[in-house]
Amino acid sequence: MNITIDGKICQAEAGEFLLAVAQRNNIYIPTLCHSDALPGQASCRLCIVEVVENGWHKVVTSCVYPVTKEVEVITNSAKILGMRKTIIMLLSARVPNNQQINKLREEYSVSKPARFTSATDEQCILCGLCVKACETVGLAAISTISRGITKKVATPYDEPSEACMGCGACAQVCPTGAIPIREEKQHRTIWNKKFALLSCKSCGKHFITQEQIEYMRNKLGSTDDEILCESCKRTHIFKKFKDLYGVAAK
Hints:
Layout: E1 2-5, E2 8-11, H1 18-24, E3 48-53, E4 56-61, E5 72-74, H2 78-94, H3 99-107, H4 129-137, E6 143-145, E7 152-154, H5 169-173, E8 181-184, E9 187-190, E10 193-199, E11 206-209, H6 210-220, H7 230-245
Parallel strand pairs: 1-5
Antiparallel strand pairs: 1-2, 3-4, 3-5, 6-7, 8-9, 9-10, 10-11
Helix pairs in contact: 2-3
């Protein structure tokens, strides 16, 4: 079916989310809590757009709004821009020193709040993307705890979690860089837990935790052959392909 986004006719599959259709057609909609690898969160609300159906206008979050019929979508109306500015202002009050939020402030000409800002160097916007990533991996080592101004993402009792394998998926998807992950020589530290790093069998680079190896063995049935960094793994695959077929994989 066809939908119209900012005057541009775009093809969409039934059930496809508006954000995906817009991105495929190079139409910019700002996001923070969205990751292509995870289900839509709809928590930051930055991806709001205006949908026009039968003359009626409504505001929806494009990351979780499925296309079910031909509609008109407006991504930058005065109403939407005003709402986005308010959202950015509120986020800026929570994380006034965050680089990503400050970029959005500049993009939408939002002044830095002079009052009611966080007194600490807070970086987390509580979008929940890190929690969803950990749940998707199947560990649930972190969660959102407490309420109100004390609400935060943490491990149980802020102590090192036995469920955490140190994969860093939570830190990788965090849109504001709020999750510190430190790597030094043969160790990785995240969520107050220190992990020993194993080395790549080919190049010797330390890159993966023992807990990650055990997880892959238990869940995926992988073997010691998997203890290769991404670069060496690609080289290994290319070599196998060449040995089997006499040509290199492209």
